[in-house]
Specification:
The chain has 14 helices and 15 strands. The protein is α/β, with parallel strands linked by helices and about 400 residues long. The strands form four sheets. The protein has a seven-stranded mixed β-sheet, with helices on both faces. A four-stranded antiparallel β-sheet has the order 11-12-15-14, with helices on one face. A two-stranded antiparallel sheet has the order 1-2. The structure holds pyridoxal-5'-phosphate.
Amino acid sequence: MLRDTPSRRLSAKLAALGRDGLLRRRQALEGPQGVRPRIDGREYLAFCSNDYLGLANDPRVVRAAVEAAQLFGVGSGASHMVTGHSVLHERLELRLAQFTGLPRALLFCSGYQANIGALTALAGRGDAVFSDERNHASLIDGTRLSRADVVRYPHCDLAALDALMGASDAALKLVVTDGVFSMDGDIAPLPGLLALCDRHDALLLVDDAHGFGVLGARGAGVLAHFGLSSPRIVYVGTLGKAAGVSGAFVAAADEIVETVLQQARTYMFTTASPAMLAAAVDASLEIIGDEEWRRERLRDLVAALKRGLRIGAGARLAASDTPIQPLIVGGNEPALAASAALRERGILVTAIRPPTVAAGTARLRIALSAAHVPDDIARLVAALNEILPA
Ligand SMILES: *Cc1c(COP(=O)(O)O)cnc(C)c1O
């Protein structure tokens, strides 16, 4: 009999994933991110990226990065705690705090690291973290790593959360939620969540990966959208989506940010993000704040999509007013088939299946960008109306 070596075991696991249709394949872009990426020599019309404002290849942002690279080099060479921290990082943290209206901001290399860092720094054994059941994977991982008791609550269900918080006698209570849910596009009921945190003396961590730059006056994010401000709020914004660059930040009251700076292992034990990227984000913030037309364009495109789609009984658009417009088709096979049929027509839309979303709710995740023009939506709508079962 053949010995079951580690590599044979891994190959068998991969083969099983393949049989279940769960293997993922990457596609290599032959140029910059944008709504018309080139892949294998063919130009597509894409509705897949989180570059909501179309800034990932903006010449002003690119120039800021290039000029900063000439002055500061490419690599940061060390963690922020050693010599990786520069005046460009320092300046960006001040600007992010101003931009979001929060007392202080701390930069991270990615949203994934920011969420893990903030959650593990702020919560520990004996504490309780209340987590929306549709939260992003990085929040789920952060709550697990924190070693706090994790209490999942039904999606956006304030009454259920109230009862769960009331039943807990944890030393510290922390409610954790996406600001805009990444696979559904709906906005968390933050005023209600904050009221519960006031009642139960808890902190509220809001991961605004999909709201920063998109929602609120000047794109300040979901807190500005609701007009919320509170020393209980821990705000996480990411800089690789609407901001078009890379990285993330945690913004909150000084003692919260200082705790994260002192305790987050994903802050301490990683090389600082290059200073040139901080300069790029700085240029991007200027555009995000000033160019309101990008958010207006997004709102117009969302409206055009909703107006144009003729959806039969087999599908429905999720209730979303954000640039994330999921078209829920139900089964995995229909979702994959629709995505493949669009691709044949030169249109890229990602099919999202379980376990990323609940079984029976496989979907096309349509992500709009201010770089789309009305004709792009018309093309998508025409293709979907042709493909979807009436
Ligand atoms: C993308 C995303 C993150 C991770 O941010 P990165 O900067 O890409 O690591 C965190 N939370 C949510 C909700 C996201 O969609």
